[in-house]
UniProtKB/TrEMBL annotation:
Keyword Nucleotide-binding: no
Residues making up the signal peptide according to the UniProt record: none
Keyword field: Coiled coil
Coiled-coil residue windows: 4-54
Gene3D superfamilies per record: hypothetical protein PF0899 domain, Major capsid protein gp5
Compartment(s): Virion
Entry protein name: Phage major capsid protein
Organism encoding this protein: Megasphaera elsdenii
Main location: virion
UniProt superkingdom: Bacteria
All residue ranges annotated as the Phage capsid-like C-terminal domain in the record: 114-371
Keyword Coiled coil attributed: yes
SUPFAM superfamilies: Major capsid protein gp5
C-alpha cells in the first residue's frame, strides 16, 4: 500500500476523532487531536509529491505537463461548443471530433429544446462560483433524473425489523412495498446580454462571462424552492436555545439527531452567537477542522441571508437532516442558447441559460421547524 493511502486513512480517522471530541465538548482533547490532523495532512501532501516523481529519470526526461492531450481536447471541445451555440461553422477537425461517439459534453446538443448542454470544462467555472455561496442543494438528497417527470422509490422513517423465515415461507407484501415519489421537473433560466466583442473569440469561456450572474440567481432560486417546501412544516415555538437542543436529542429520531444540522438566517446566527454558557464562554464553538464553521453542541450551523429566509416576528430554525427530508431531482446540466437578433440595436448577443429541477419532501419527520420570538 502506498504511503499516501495509509496517510489518507489516518486523516479520515483523525477527522472523525475530532468531530466526536467536539460533540462531547472535550475541547482541549479535540484541539490536540486537530494538531495531529494538521500534521497528517502535511505528511500526506509530501508523500503525494514524492510518489509523483518516484521512478522518473528527471535528468534525462524532464517532467512535462500532465494530460497534454487532454488539455488540447478540452480546448477543442470548448471551441466546438461555442461555435454550435453561436451558430458558427465547424472546421473539418472540429466536425470529426463532434461526430465522435461518446465525446463528453458534445453529443448532447438539443437546440430545439432549449440549447446545448454546457461541457464539463466550462461547468467547472459554475461549480467554483457555487462553492463561494451558501447553497442548500448539496445538503439535500440529490437524485439525477433523465426525464422531465416520473416516479422514484423512497423510504421514510423505517421502524420495521427483519422477518424470520425458513425455506418455502413467503415474505409479506408489506415487507417489500416502497413509497413512490412523483417528480415533475421545472425549467428555470435567465437571459443575459453580452457584448459581441466578448464573443468574437471562438475559445472564450462563455460561462466565465455569464457564470457568476447565472449561478447567483440559480442558487437563490434553488434555495427559495427548498425553503418553500420546509416552511410548510408545522412550526414549534420555543423560548430559548434549549428548545433546539431538545429537538436534536428528543424530537428527532436518534439516527437523525446524531448528524443533525441547524439551518437559520443571519438573525438566528446572531442570536446564538450572543449566548454564553454557565462559565461565560460563547455557546457556539468553532469547528477545529474548519475554524470558519460554527457549531452548537457539535452540530453544524448553516446561515442564510435574512432576505431569503424571513418569518414575520420570528427567528426560524430548521433542525435535522435535510438529506433525509428533501429530495432534489436534478436534470443534470446547464443548457445555453443565443439570439443575435434581439440585441441587434445594442451590438449585443442575448444568452439564455437554463437549468431544470424539482424538489419534494421525502420525510417530514427528519427535520423540525422551530421558531423563537424576535424581540
Amino acid at each position: 500500500m502506498k504511503k499516501s493511502e495509509e496517510l489518507r486513512r489516518t486523516i479520515n480517522a483523525l477527522k472523525t476523532d475530532v468531530e466526536k471530541l467536539q460533540a462531547a465538548e472535550q475541547y482541549d482533547d479535540a484541539a490536540a487531536k486537530a494538531k495531529e490532523l494538521e500534521e497528517a495532512i502535511n505528511q500526506y501532501n509530501a508523500a503525494k509529491a514524492i510518489e509523483k516523481v518516484q521512478g522518473l529519470d528527471v535528468t534525462n526526461n524532464p517532467l512535462e505537463p500532465e494530460n497534454k492531450n487532454a488539455a488540447v481536447t478540452a480546448n477543442l471541445k470548448n471551441r466546438i461548443f461555442n461555435k454550435l451555440v453561436l451558430g458558427r461553422p465547424l472546421t473539418e477537425e472540429e466536425t470529426a471530433a463532434y461526430n465522435t461517439a461518446g465525446t463528453p459534453g458534445l453529443v448532447e446538443a438539443s437546440p430545439e429544446k432549449g440549447g446545448y448542454v454546457v461541457p464539463e470544462e466550462q461547468m467547472n467555472t459554475v461549480y467554483e462560483y457555487r462553492r463561494q455561496m451558501v447553497s442548500l442543494k448539496p445538503y439535500c438528497n440529490i437524485t439525477p433524473v433523465a426525464y422531465l417527470s416520473g416516479r422514484m422509490p423512497a423510504m421514510g422513517t423505517e421502524t420495521g425489523v427483519l422477518t424470520e423465515f425458513d425455506e418455502l415461507n413467503e415474505i409479506k407484501q408489506s415487507d417489500f412495498d416502497f413509497e413512490q415519489k412523483t417528480y415533475n421537473v421545472k425549467t428555470y433560466g435567465d437571459i443575459i446580454p453580452v457584448s459581441n466583442q466578448l464573443l468574437a473569440d471562438n475559445d472564450v469561456n462563455i460561462m466565465l462571462i455569464i457564470g457568476r450572474r447565472f449561478t447567483r440567481k440559480a442558487v437563490n432560486t434553488e434555495n427559495s424552492s427548498i425553503l418553500s417546501l420546509l416552511k410548510a412544516l408545522s412550526a414549534t415555538t420555543i423560548t430559548d436555545y434549549k428548545g433546539i437542543v431538545k429537538a436534536i436529542f428528543k424530537t428527532l429520531d436518534p439516527t437523525i439527531g446524531l448528524s443533525a444540522k441547524i439551518f437559520t438566517n443571519q438573525t438566528g446566527l446572531d442570536y446564538l452567537a450572543e449566548l454564553d454558557d454557565a462559565q461565560k464562554r460563547p455557546l457556539l464553538t468553532p469547528d477545529l477542522a474548519n475554524p470558519q464553521q460554527l457549531l452548537l453542541r457539535g452540530h453544524q450551523i448553516v446561515s442564510l441571508p435574512d432576505s431569503l429566509l424571513t418569518v414575520e416576528g420570528q427567528i426560524p430554525f430548521f433542525v435535522g437532516s435535510m438529506s433525509d427530508a428533501v429530495a432534489f431531482y436534478d436534470r443534470k446540466g446547464v443548457e445555453v442558447a443565443v439570439s443575435t437578433e434581439a440585441g441587434f440595436t445594442r451590438y449585443a448577443t442575448y444568452i439564455r441559460a437554463i437549468e431544470r429541477y424539482d424538489v419534494k419532501m421525502l420525510d417530514k419527520d427528519a427535520i423540525a421547524l422551530l421558531q423563537i420570538a424576535n424581540a
